[in-house]
Amino acid sequence: ARATALGMAALVELHDDDDFARARTVSPPLVGINARDLSTFRVDLLTPLRLRPRIDWPHRAVFESGAFNEEDAMLARSGGFEGLLVGEAAVRNPDAITDLSRGLAFPAAASAFWTRIAELGGARRPIVKICGITNRDDAVAAVDAGADLLGFVFADSPRRATPELLSDVAGLDALKVAVVVAGGPHGPLDRRVRDLLDSGLIDAIQFHGDEAPDECARWGFPYYKAVRVATADDLERIGDYRGPRVLIDARADGAYGGSGVRVPVELLRAALDASVAGEAGYAGGRPLWIAGGLTDANVADVVRAFAPELVDASSGLEREPGRKDHARVRRFIDAARAAGRDRGERA
Fold first, then answer.
1. Model pLDDT for residues 61-100, shown as the tens digit of each residue
2. CATH dotted code for 2-103
3. Which of 181, 128, 177 is nearest to 308 (CA)?
4. Is the distance from CB of 341 to CB of 307 less than 8 angstroms?
5. Which phi and psi (to 5°) does residue 223 adopt?
6. Which CATH number fits the domain 113-346, given the four candidates 3.20.20.70, 3.30.450.20, 3.40.50.2000, 3.40.30.10?
7. How confident is the model at residue 119 (pLDDT cuts 50, 70, 90)?
8. In Å, how far from its chain's centre is CA 51?
9. What is the rounded CA–CA span in Å between residue 260 and residue 319?
10. 156 phi-psi bin (left φ>0, alpha ψ -120 to 50, beta other)
11. Whole-model pTM over 0.90
């Protein structure tokens, strides 16, 4: 009240459920949510997106900490934030203000993909993506079994999908991701995939090719990058990409995905250690998203050992290329969830 009397607006910062309960009694019109955990100083850009939907009074939301570039501002805007609180970014690079302002011009209602991922990631169980969907029956079976994301390949593959399929599955309650191979010798994103994104038939793009960090958001937002790894040097590339999450997949000669090859255990361990420590590079402090050779027989071990936020399976759940084994899909999802519960109870 004193701030209002002085012609000022008080920015009320909220961090957890207790803060929300106290703030609700006064319903502040200007609310800030910090991406930085002030007890560990780790930053997760999805934290504000997960918490903002809890504000159930009229307000304007400010995204605090962790925004350094246009892409970060686009992420904040996609989560319904109208402003950014920045310090380090502007001190390090005053020109960043122009980029951040441009990002805040992104349409707030353009996509709820990252907000939905933030909500799923807060459920203390692995998010499950079933990739390589080529027909409606497989899509329905995956959703009925509990899949959170469906992946549709738009690249040379026996699992190649069609735009018509996306229309057929539009009503299914799962996020839909177009998996593409672009960049380098493959050229830019296929315009047809961008049209699917713009029309809302897909929710995000998974770049699985040779895309450079500065190409991804320019070609399609929201997106995340899949980085194929076989060595520690490959892991270092993860830190080059700006998205809030990066998918770690196995690098196999002659294949950009769906190879059935697993990521070497020592690389997953290194990525986990870096993620827990919040180190730059490797997972860059981001929760792990893991693909590569996952099946209904091994996913529980992977969840228990590496606590991934997301697991992604494709060829390991097939009865033939491009056709899912529905029983294996269900076993995969059940095993992943059960292992996640077990790990959560021991934590």
1. 999 999 999 999 999 999 999 999 998 888 888 888 999 9
2. 3.20.20.70
3. 128
4. no
5. -155, 170
6. 3.20.20.70
7. very high
8. 16
9. 13
10. beta
11. yes
> In the chain, which segments carry CATH 3.20.20.70?
2-103, 113-346
> Is the CB of residue 309 less than 8 Å from the CB of residue 289?
yes
Tokens 């169980």 -> residue: 125
Residue 266 is which amino acid?
Answer: E
